[in-house]
Specification:
By secondary structure, the chain is mostly beta strands. It has helices at residues 94-102, 170-174, 229-237; strands spanning 45-51, 56-60, 67-75, 81-88, 113-122, 127-134, 137-142, 159-164, 184-189, 192-194, 198-200, 204-209, 216-223, 245-254, 261-264, 270-275, 293-299. The strands form two sheets. The chain has a nine-stranded mixed beta sheet. A hairpin with a 2-residue loop joins strand 9 (184-189) and strand 10.
């Protein structure tokens, strides 16, 4: 995070993700690698996060250690859910982060923690698989999707924590990547996305926040039949009724210049939008309402047909 008045633009107020979104809308590992073994691919550990309407369940294949982690987020709830990760700062307990978050204190997102990816919102009955290089420390998992009364899911119980042991250098973390070939990259910067015009269903895509100031995420959503990118943008600017899209996953918010991560595009062919729901602290509007919405197409093989 940048240490300045606009530091941690992720949530400098208590508006959080989905300040104006209804319940149907989307919100906003490995063993440590010794330096002498950098040429050997690490054994990727696995982590499963299951979200229901009032809690998370987390399962791992042992103690997580700093390194690359394959995370599967299953939405077993009745509506949209996400699994946004935060890395707590040194000396901050999960109890303190939870108390500040539930109290709506800006400290939860400045002095307490920093966003570190995770799974963007996905509709009920679906899952999002992603890969992240995680540093050792304590992590929080939270869902900022709101119910029909405007209550964020984290306030209803969808807030928990997990720990990662060990420590890797910045160079070691940056050198970690999935063994599978990456199909492309999505970069978030300057209130826009740089990304392929056509993505492949089931493809592995890297997300990077290359902005110099703002936290960003990439939400992926399938446009409903007959709906356009312009319809989605208009809805973000003045939400009324159900959104013109279906939540389809993506990668959670990360800090400017962060490592980002990779996510598998669990989508069927069709027309989609990518957008960011991080709230701008000066205007109180989501980045999507400020124009951070991009259209793209998903095909079965990545062709332009």
């Amino acid at each position: 995070m940048f240490v300045r008045m606009r530091t941690n633009r992720f949530f400098r107020t208590n508006r959080f993700f989905l300040a104006v979104m209804p319940a149907v809308a989307v919100a906003a590992w490995a063993v440590a690698v010794p330096a002498h073994a950098s040429a050997c691919p690490p054994r990727v550990q696995t982590m499963y996060i299951t979200g229901v309407d009032d809690r998370y369940q987390i399962h791992t294949d042992g103690q997580l250690r700093a390194g690359l982690v394959r995370i599967t987020f299953d939405n077993d709830g009745t509506g949209d859910h996400e699994a946004q990760l935060f890395l707590l700062h040194d000396g901050v307990s999960f109890a303190q982060f939870k108390a500040d978050l539930l109290a709506g204190k800006p400290a939860a997102f400045s002095t307490d923690a920093a966003p570190r990816g995770g799974a963007a919102a996905i509709s009920a009955g679906h899952d999002q698989v992603l890969f992240e290089a995680l540093q050792g420390g304590t992590y929080a998992v939270a869902c900022f999707v709101r119910d029909k009364n405007g209550v964020p899911h984290f306030a209803m119980g969808m807030l928990t924590s997990f720990s990662v042991a060990g420590h890797l250098s910045a160079a070691q973390l940056a050198g970690l990547r999935p063994a599978r070939r990456t199909d492309g990259q999505i970069s978030a910067h300057d209130m826009t996305f740089t990304m392929p015009a056509v993505l492949r269903a089931g493809g592995l895509y890297r997300f990077r926040n290359t902005d110099r100031v703002d936290d960003h995420q990439v939400n992926v959503a399938r446009l409903l039949p007959g709906k356009t990118v312009a319809d989605a943008l208009a809805w973000f600017r003045s939400p009324a009724g159900p959104p013109p899209f279906v939540s389809s996953g993506g990668f959670g918010a990360d800090t400017p210049g962060g490592l980002g991560g990779w996510f598998i595009l669990n989508a069927r062919p069709g027309n989609y939008v990518a957008f960011c729901l991080v709230v701008d602290p000066d205007t109180g509007r989501s980045h999507a309402a400020m124009g951070m919405v991009a259209g793209f197409r998903v095909t079965a093989d990545g062709s332009r047909s």
